[in-house]
Amino acid sequence: MHDIVHDFAQFLTKNECHALDGTGRNSSSERPRHLTILEEGTEEEMFSSPVVDFGRLRSFLTFQRVVVPQNLFCSLKCARTLTLHYCRLAEIPAEIGRLIHLRHLNLSANRFITLPEAICDLYYLETLDISDCYELSCLPQRIEGLVHLRHLFNSCTYQLRQIPQGLGKLMSLCSLTRFIARSNSDDLAILKDLNQLESLRVEIEGEVDFGSAELEKKVNMREMSLFFSFGVHFIETPSYIESMEPPPKLERLVLGGYPGVQLPSWLVTKSHANNLTRLIISGPSNISSLPALWKLSSLRELEFVRVGKLEYLGKEFFGVTKALHENMAFRNLRKLHFEDCDNWTRWEDTSEDDEEVAVSIMPSLEKLKIRGCDKLETLPHRILGRISSLKKLNIWGCSKLRDRYSDKTGDDWKQISHIPQVHI
Predict the structure, then answer these.
(1) Which of 4, 30, 153, 408 fits as disulfide partner to 129, beta carbons 3.0 to 4.6 Å?
(2) Going along 78-142, which residue ranges are E strands?
(3) Residue 10 has pLDDT above 60, yes or no
C-alpha cells in the first residue's frame, strides 16, 4: 500500500482502530473498537496498553508469533472477529465459548490437537478457519451447534481423519476445504443435505458411493476438488467414478491422483460441461488418453500436472478428426498449462490434408506454459501458427525444447518467433 493511501486510511479510522507494534506504540485511536498487533513482542508490551479496553473491542487481529494471555478469551466480550494466526497455541481454552458475538474466528497455523466442545456454543459464528493446524486430530462432536456456519476452512489438517456426523446438519455451509471419504463407509452421506455448498474439496480413500452425497442437487456448487489416494490404478474408468452425477453448474474442477487411464465420460457430456471454466488434472496419475475436452466451450483455463503416463497427444485433442468439417475447439480457452508430464514425447501437429477440415482451434488462447516435460521434442507449429491470439509462451525445464527453440538461435526459432513474448 502506498504511504499516502496508508496515511489516509489511518486518518479515516483514527477513532476506531488501534495498532500495536513491539513497543506498544503506533496508536491511532484513544478508545479503539478494532485492534491489530503488527509485530512480535512480550505479553506485557502487547496487552498492557492503557488506551485499549478489550471489553469493547469488536475485532482483535494478530498474524505474528504473539504470546496470547490466558485471560484474553474472557476479555473479548463484544468481539465479532478474532484472528490468532500462527500464535503457537497448544490449547484452545473452553472460555472461547463465552464469546457469543463472534462471527469470524481464525485459529489457523497453530499447534493445538483438539478444539473444545465449548466452541460449538458460538451460535452466530459464520467463519471458522483452522487451516494449517497440522496436529488437529478431530473436530468437536457437537459441531451441529454452529448452525450459522457458512465457511469451514480446514485445509492441511493432516491428522484429521474423520468428519463428525453433525456436520451434515449445518445447512448454511458454503465452503468446506477438506472432507475425508473413506472406503466402505457412509462418510459422503454427510454431504447429502448440504445444498448451499459452493466450494468443496474431497479426499477419497478407496471406492466410495458418490450417489450418497447427491452432488447433482448441489445447484450452488461452483468449485469442486476430488483427490484420490487409493493407490491402485485401473485399466478403465472405475465404475464408482463413471457413475457419479456432478453438480450441474460446476465452474471449476480439480481431479487429483485420478486412478484410471481415461477420464470419466461425464466430464464432457453432463450439463455442467457448458459452465466449466477451469479444469485441472493433477497426478500422480496413469491417464494415457484424453476425452474430447475441446467440447468444453466455456473452458478458460486447462492444466495437466504430473500426468506421467501421457506419452502422445494427438491432434484429436484439438478436435481435428476426419468426422469433423465445421467446428470450433476450445473456443474460450485463455491458458493452457502442462507440467511434469515425464513421459510425454510427441505432440502431433496438423497436416496439409487437415487443412480441408475447417476447425478453428483455440481462437482465444493467450498463454501456453510447458514446464518439466523433458522428453517433449517439438511443438505443433502449424497449430500454434494459426492461433493469432497467443501472446505468451513459457518453457521451463524442457531440455529438448530449449535446444530447439531457445535464444533465437535454435533451428526452429522461426516457428515460434511470431509469438510476442517467449521465455525459455
Answers:
(1) 153
(2) 81-84, 104-106, 127-129
(3) no
Mapped onto helix, strand or coil, the DSSP state of residue 1 is coil
Q: Are strands 34-37 and 392-396 parallel, antiparallel or unpaired?
A: unpaired
420 and 391 Cβ atoms separated by less than 8 Å: yes
**Cα–Cα distances in angstroms (integers) from residue 322 to residues 166, 198, 240, 325, 326, in the given order:** 54, 40, 33, 7, 11
Determine the Cα–Cα distance for residues 171 and 193; give it in Å rounded to an integer: 7
Beta strands in 238-355 (DSSP E): 252-256, 278-285, 301-307, 312-313, 326-329, 335-339, 346-347
Q: Cβ distance 241 to 267 under 8 Å? A: no
CB 303 within 8 A of CB 337: yes
| Residue 203: all three cell numbers together | 479426499
Decide if 402 contacts 395 (C-beta within 8 A): yes
Domain ranges of the chain: 1-173
Q: Are 213 and 192 in contact (CB under 8 A)?
A: yes
Stated pTM of the model: 0.88
CB 333 within 8 A of CB 361: no
Instruction: Give the residue with greater pLDDT, 129 vs 407.
Output: 129
Distance CA 13, CA 29 (A): 8
> For the domain 1-173, what is the CATH code?
3.80.10.10
Evaluate whether 127 touches 154 at the Cβ level (below 8 Å). no
Residue 81, beta-bridge partner list: 59, 104
Res 46: pLDDT: 56
The predicted-structure confidence for 325-369, as pLDDT tens digits, reads as follows: 557 789 999 999 999 999 999 999 887 776 666 678 899 999 999
**CB of 192 within 8 A of CB of 216?**
no
Q: 216, 276, 261: which is closest to 243 by C-alpha?
A: 216
* β-sheet bridge partners, residue 313: 347
Question: pLDDT (tens digit, 9 = 90+) per residue, 234-246?
Answer: 556 778 888 899 9
* Highest mean pLDDT out of 52-66, 315-329, 375-389: 375-389
pLDDT score at 167: 97
